[in-house]
Amino acid sequence: QVQLVESGGGLVQAGDSLELSCQASGRTGSSTAMAWFRQAPGKEREFVAAISWRGMDTYYADSVKGRFTVSRDNAKMTVYLQMNSLRPEDTAVYYCAAGRPAYSADSYQPRAYTYWGQGTQVTVSS
């Protein structure tokens, strides 16, 4: 079993930066990819970013490319999401996820991830 705990959310103004962290515990095993998803009120959960086990491959939603950076520290069992130039439309609950996507294309899909955190709220005011 794997537990994921997100932190770092908060209320910021447009243009500000935030860094989210996701601490994993339990039997994460090897070859575990990590991802961030988000869900705004009244909307479906959407993919934000993902990173492969060794960090060699990263994936981003078009809406966050060039502004967000995903990274991981396997020794600390932690994945990060650095968010710069935040916009009001980035407001959402951000979820950390862990899993083993069978293919690269699966990295964008919630179904590829087995474990999920409880989420952390990010609110960006205009």
In short:
The chain is mainly beta. The chain has strands spanning 2-7, 10-13, 18-26, 33-39, 46-51, 58-60, 68-73, 78-83, 92-99, 113-116, 120-125.
Characterise this structure.
- This protein has 126 residues and is mostly beta strands.
- The protein is built from no helices and eleven strands.
- The model has no long low-confidence stretch (mean pLDDT 94).
Key descriptive features of the protein:
seven-stranded mixed sheet, 126 residues, four-stranded antiparallel sheet, mainly beta, single chain, 11 strands
Poorly predicted segments: none
**Main β sheet profile:** 7 strands, mixed
Helix/strand/pairing category: mainly beta
Please, how many helices?
0
**How much of the sequence is in beta strands?**
over 45%
Residue-averaged pLDDT, rounded?
94
What shape does the CA trace take? globular
Helix share, percent: under 10%
Helix and strand arrangement:
Elements: E1 2-7, E2 10-13, E3 18-26, E4 33-39, E5 46-51, E6 58-60, E7 68-73, E8 78-83, E9 92-99, E10 113-116, E11 120-125
Parallel strand pairs: 2-11
Antiparallel strand pairs: 1-3, 3-8, 4-5, 4-9, 5-6, 7-8, 9-10, 9-11
